[in-house]
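#random but structural
TW: two for the price of one
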Amino acid sequence: MATQRVAAEVVDLKKHPTLDVLVDALEQYLPADDRDRVLGAYEFAREKHEGHLRRSGHPYIEHPLAAAVTCAELQLDVPALQAALLHDVMEDCGVSRSQLVSEFGVDVAKLVDGATKLSALQLPRVTGTIDREVQAENLRKMFVAMADDVRVVIVKLADRLHNMRTLDVMRPDKQVRISRETMDIYAPLAARLGIWQIRAQLEDLSFKYLEPEDYRRISDLVASRRQTRERYLDQIRVQLENALTAEGLTAQVRGRVKHLYSIHEKINKYSAQGKSFDDIYDLLALRVLTESTSDCYAVLGVVHGLWRPLAGEFDDYIASPRPSGYQSLHTTAFWSPSHAVEVQIRTQQMDREAEYGVAVHWAYKEDRHNAMNDRERLSWLRQLVDWQGELAGAEDFLETLRSDVFQDQVFVHTPKGEIMALRSGATPLDFAFRIHTDVGYQCVGAKVNGRLARLSTPLENGDVVEIVTSRTARGPSRDWLNPALGYVTTQHARTKIRQWFNRQARTENIARGRDELDRELRRLSLRLPGVEAEVLEATRSKSMEDALAAIGAGDVTAHAVALKVAAAGDEETESEPTVEVVERSAPSSVEAVSVLGGSNMLTRLAPCCSPLVGEAITGFITRSRGVTIHREDCPNIVSLADDERIVPVRWNTFRGLTEARLRVTGWDRVGLARDVAGVCADENVNMVSFVTGEPDRGAVTLTFTVEASGLRQLQRVMSKLDGVHGVMSVERDHQGPAVNG
């Protein structure tokens, strides 16, 4: 296909790639016919994105072009390259899936559709933090999509890499949010897939925005010692090449330097040991590429004969590959009395898999018999997809990702010789639950390397672990969940243990959950009958029993559910972004909040975000209740940023207070009123009225008005009042003013 190439400019081709860059990458491994198919997708995407600009002002086509260049550097197949070029046309250009099928085939359309769905997965922020429930659900979808066709996520990683390269045009708060998400999810994901080339870039780019001062400092340190480092690398490279030649071994020896974020981690590790940057021995590294596995071990012998090895710094990832498929020999040796070098030894094929990970499986005409089997390489992914249906909620899923999937691994063996990968620091009990849930439940002991070992013993690479079970075992011990005792370290094992106790105590949990929810709803003047649908929505449960059991088991707090129920009820009664209207009063006739540009306007504090004096605030003009005051970062007000009813407001110079009436019911006893008043005094809450009702069957009701700084303080006071001896209930009173006593 005749396609005009864009003239090269003096620009950063990583940020602003040209078509020439893509063509050069394609020529490295694709024949002409396949290159034309890829360039056909480029022309289609360029036409559809015509006139579209990125936030930087550059043509939008640069973004899919950059993603395709990254995929070409990984030597992905033609459908993946076409999908990278087309990954935004469905979402941004109105192109239908059927049109893509007609133009490029079912495989490409499926990949583009998958990438479009992943691009649509946003991570909404609630009160300054990522909504973990939404984040978990999005990640579940991502991993399910990846298990179906991992190329979808490789395209997504390429997409994220270019977004990170061009992040400088975003607002600082978005730079930090996107970098945090990249560091927590996408960089570890690239590592887990074995694509170290992308992982290192994502980490360094995220590091730049998350810790800019440390980033600049380490960049300067590395740059200042560049000449010395290169001189040392040349010296030791030549030494090793001469030694290999003398032994008749043919190998390529390359010098390399760790990327900035890995150096940052090394500095933090060494600082804890009282060492400085100059003491970090493995900033210098050599990589030796051989023709065969046997040559790798021969080279290892030469290295250890040439230089003294550092004890405890040898890893054999050829015999025990990482779950990502990574294979190599790692050793560290002293090339001078005070300087050491890290040496990685691997075959050419191992090096390719180390750089490209699972991507090597889609390289053009790849010899799949020499590559690690897909099933073995992605076994951790299918296991995660199986687990995700069993995990209780967002916290469990996110913690499983971070603790069991994205952490360093140890590789242990079953008595039959099967290799099992666990997170670093895992115990025999973690191993038992990894084998099967019932093995964990029936576990009564363990043998490590043929000897009895405690269930809390940290496992090491190469250990052979045998689990001792008993069919008469009564199930897990609650001590297993005590982190101080160290029985389990993986989230998977913790989840299974909690599930066992939850099933055993379901009836008790339902009763406890009902009591806790009833108490929290009463505080917000709500009753459980009539709000069941809202409770199910708030807890994402299929039945009220499931919802109450989750509350009783502590998987979700009754307080959080009650607030969500109140918010849902308020949305039904009025299309205004508040959960509940709280009457506001002040200690003088001057208003606590001023509406800029208006006067004598009724103002109310929004308890959905409970703004406190001194916090940044904004106002929302309601249809019938004046101006509601929200914190500027309240998600309810952020979602309405362009609404014409948003008005600027400010705090006046004195301290405004929220006035609320409370009703406390308790057993009539001497000192009850004194203890209630004492709680208010301890919390620095002023009581402006107080009345005691007539005793009824041994119970008495105290009704009083307090002035609090906001809903948080009010809720704290109510919780403490609930703990006063003899108090049966604490509720908000909306029936009328309290009588001054």
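TW: number two ↓
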Amino acid sequence: MKISKAKFLLFFVIAPVHLCFCQVIPRKSVDSLQEILKTLPADTFKLNALHQLGNYYHQRRFKQDPADLDSALFFFKKELALSNLLRVETGSGRQESLCSMGEVYLSKTQMEQSKACFIQVWNYYKKTGDKRMEGKAWLRFAKAANEAAWLDRPAGLFEQIVQACGNSIVLFKATGHIGDEINAHMNLAATYFIYGKYDQAEAACMKPIVKYPGNSSSEFIRLYYVLAHVQRYKGNLNKALSCTLKSMDLLQKSPNYPDKITVESQLFGELALIYDAMGQTENSIVWYKRTLALRENMNIKLEYKYRTAGFIVQGLIKQKKYGEAFSTAWGVEQRHPPDGDYNRAIISQIKAYCYDAAGNYKKAEEMYLLALKLFRYIKTDEIVSLAKYDVAKFYIKRSDYKKAAFYLDEGIRDGFATTRQRDYHLIRYKIDSASGNYPSALRHHILYKLFNDSIFNIEKNKQLQELQVRFETQQKERDIQSLKKDSLRQREKTGQANNIRNLTLAGSALLVVLLALIYTNYRAKQRANTALNALVSEKDELLKEKEWLIKEVHHRVKNNLQIVMGLLQRQSAYIDNEAALQAIQNSESRMHSIALIHQKLYQSENLDLINMPEYVNELVNYLRESADTGTRIKFEKTIDDIFLTVSQAVPLGLIMNEAITNALKYAYNADECGVIRITLERTDHQNIALAVEDDGRGLQPDFDLNKLNSLGMSLMRGLSKQINGVFEITRKKGVQVLVTFKMEYVARTPHELTNR
């Protein structure tokens, strides 16, 4: 029988055994730690660093990269060699190195090498008489061996694991460490559980319960959880519910229990599964939702969140709440996107439930088959068998019994929960009946009834009802206790409020005296402030007058430039020389770019900064209208929120004017369409880049830019130098004019602009 992934994961939840605590470092620190190792002297600090690196690579073993195990073994061997040199036995020393190496060898399924390492540890602690540490070493071997059993099945391994757990139990009994003894029994129970020996697993759990009646130590919280899990797989839902409630009660009485949220999520999930198996859908949904609420905020594998959401979806579908089922499935995927094929398979399966319930059978079939396809590399997973089981049920509802038989995984009969085995026989009965195999159908129907009767007999139903009543009563009592605590807190707050009121009255009296003194002081300061305000008012008036004069200057400069532009326009009417006419029109355009800046300064509240996005928009609109290109030339603008001083805005405006005018004149034929792109962006905090680019015919290949000495080109070069910028012309599809320069000042927010 193969060990399912669900059982393997349960084992790791319930059997945390370590010889010493060692914090595993994050990946980003590994490289730096390896560099530090080169400089560390041969001491205990270097031992600890080597151990951390070995642990880091060993924890990555679940990614199934052999190189990680080799790296882990490399660092643990170096730790062992240094331990021998320093003669350090415990802590991050020789014994810890040997145990870690033994675990790595088990992960590599090299059993002989592993046993050789652990034998040295067992012999050392036996020689020193430290029975507790010897017991922990045996238990550590058992846990690592169980992991190896999941990856491979070496002959005789099960017997070795049971013997190791038994040895640890004997040693812990001798030392009187009850917590360690309970932990060893739990690991033995886990071993039996993952090998499908549920009766032995139950017996292993019951031994410490019988031996220490009334004991409420924290180890019993996990022990009862394990026992509940075993009883649910056996079909004893009444006992499973009783154990879960006992574990929850103990957890409630242990406010300082380590990692309480994790254990709480496991108990809530177990309670939901029990209610689900009992057919109490509404109760199961309540606890599944509480489980998901906790797990969504935990750093755990994504598949646990998905599977919990899948149970909620199935329950909602049973209640015909299809809209909520869809929102739950798509919501959890949106909040936690899948990170690999395994999780994409699970979410596809959940979506298949929704499409099936909505009657979209084609889409449901597509999602079911996609899930199986994504599961293709996993052969020993309970989740995969259940996925095939769901596909079989889907085809049975479509009366396609041949396909149902093809997908139904017969492995679900062995090692699965009793409720799953019962459901398997029901489906097998339907398939065999449809195919005319009546003897087999009758046999499966009898088995189905036997399983069902074993789960829901009269005595068990009575116990379940009593347990539910008791649980609901306990919940109400806890709610009442919570209300009492809230009431007590409220009374304490009321007492505090009365004390605060009395203090307030005393403070008020003192405040009256202080106010009288302050008022006398205030009157004296008020007289001084009156004289000061008069001076400030006079200064404000002078400032307003100065601002008005500056605005008036800008207004008049703008008007004068417009007069000059008007004169140029009139003069052009009397010129029949094309070159002269072109020069006058170019001058007029340049004048407009300058006038536009003074107009902006006159209209703005700020008198020395130009809002470049507004300025560029108006300049481009003017040049578009002047060129009369209609819709054949489009302009694309990317302008950052930049404010420039006049000394930089004027040269930059003239450069843009020249570059855009040249593109309009020379880049395109008279009937040709095109796009001119204007970009004004910050390249970093200090610098700006202006780019004017067209997609026209460009320059001739033999055209030498260095020999070009036109007025426009000279003007752009000169203006670029004026603002200490770099001027470039590049050939792309068309021509790009690029100017980069350092800003004198950039206002980033309106508040900064008005308060600079």
